[in-house]
Amino acid sequence: MGIKNTLSVYFVKWIIKLVFAGLLVLMLNFLFVIWGINHDLLLPANEPINKAEEIKSEVENADYINSIILPPELDYAIFNKQTNEMVKSNMSSRSKEKAKETFQNLSKGKANSFIKYDSQYETILIHNNLKIQFANNELRKAIPNPGVWLSILSILIYCIYLVWNIRSFSKIITQENQKLIKVASKIKEKDLNIEFPQVRFNEYKDVMSAMESLSEALVKSIQKEIEITNSKAEQISYLIHDIKIPLTVIKGNTELLEAMTTDDMKENFSDIMNSIQQVERYLQEVIDINLNNKQINTNKEEVSVNDFLCKLESETGTLGNNIIIENFTEKGTDLFIDVSLLIRAINNIILNGIERTPQDKKVQLFVRQDKDLIQFIIIDQGPGFSGEALKKGSQLFYTENYGRTNNSHYGLGLTFAEKVIKQHNGRMKLSNNASHSGQVLVELPILKSDPGKRLKDRLDSSQNGIHD
Question: How far is residue 461's CA from residue 110's CA, in Å, rounded to a whole number?
Fold first, then answer.
């Protein structure tokens, strides 16, 4: 891939470019100063010394200094030797004070940045600041130090260029990072249609290559999982078919024998028939969960919560008398549901609660309204869900009865219930309440009054089906 496409090389090039830009700014400053001096826009730093040398002899041979002979490029202050007073000056106030201080310290041999010439009765101090100045007198007074302003302007331009380059560099890195993030997000979502974009740097190419390998492994894993699922579904489908044939024969012969026996023997045949019905329920639940990729068609309709609860209470009555149902919803609240299918789903949850509840206690079903949702809260009086059950409770065939000694529980009820609830755009959540008892929350959306929404719900219902 070559070292020239690495981040380190790009960074070194970026630094070199910034250094070159800084040198270019300095060079432009220098060229501007040279151009300004050549075109009489600027005065060189030693110009005051040259001008002062031109008038030196004339000043020293005079009694008094005539300001007419002084070039306009010079900043000066003339002092009377007898009175030590400043006679004339073209300096700024600040420079005048500095000149006065310098004149008073002449006896100490300190002239600072001034050139000193003496006439018979006067002394002139010429400011020698060794800085570039404007040749125009008005400009020189308005902008006494153009070199400083030129430096500030150059630094400002360079800083703008620096910020622009940093933003450009940051944008490139951000774009490369976004490519990686986008691919990683698609892998996380198990999206198999991933397009791997071209990246600029070798370091990113290595990461992208690793992600491409990961994607290929993910595709193989998903395909293998699909094959295993299809194989399992097919085997279970065959198993159900093979079981139902002899079961039908057993059931038919048992009914025939039951009709031919005495009353004393009918109790034994009743136990046999109950066991057969139990096996049939198990097989029906397997079919309902759609292991063989069939669909459970739904027939949704508008129904009030109160009417649904009446039907649910009637159905749960067949499960025993240890169930308490309390309704806290508002009147006139409607749902758009398949009544019989949803009753079966909630009954499965209640049955799960009954199995976990001691015989002398009751399972509670609270129904309440929370904004746009109806909540069914089923609370058992058992020891609560284990940590594993909270995570896997709705998974197919999962049961906390590891030995499966309880023949009425196969790890299918909560799986079926969750699929039905999802089919109704709801959700199911397992938890333990404050009393450490098991609690199952079912939330379903309330039917809204919007006619368009109702039409959409009906269309969704027409395309129904619970998929594995």
Answer: 103
3-state secondary structure 344-367: HHHHHHHHHHHHHCCCCCCEEEEE
Number of residues that this document lists for the chain: 468
Q: What is the 3-state secondary structure (H, E, C) of 429-464?
A: EEEECCCCCEEEEEEEECCCCCHHHHHHHHHHHHCC
Q: What is the pLDDT of residue 156?
A: 92
Whether pLDDT at 16 is above 50: yes
Nearest-angstrom CA–CA distance, 177 and 22: 30
Please report which confidence band the pLDDT of residue 113 belongs to, taking 50, 70 and 90 as the band edges. Answer: confident
**Other CB atoms closer than 10 Å to residue 267's CB: what's the count?**
8
Contacts by residues 324-331 (CB-CB < 8 Å, ≥ 24 positions apart): 324/362, 324/363, 324/364, 324/365, 325/365, 325/367, 326/364, 326/365, 326/366, 326/367, 327/367, 328/366, 328/367, 328/368, 328/369, 329/305, 329/367, 329/368, 329/369, 329/374, 330/369, 331/306
| Tens digits of residue pLDDT in 352-397 | 888 888 888 888 999 998 888 899 999 998 888 888 877 776 665 5
Nearest-angstrom CA–CA distance, 233 and 230:
5
What does pTM read for this prediction?
0.43
pLDDT at position 70: 86
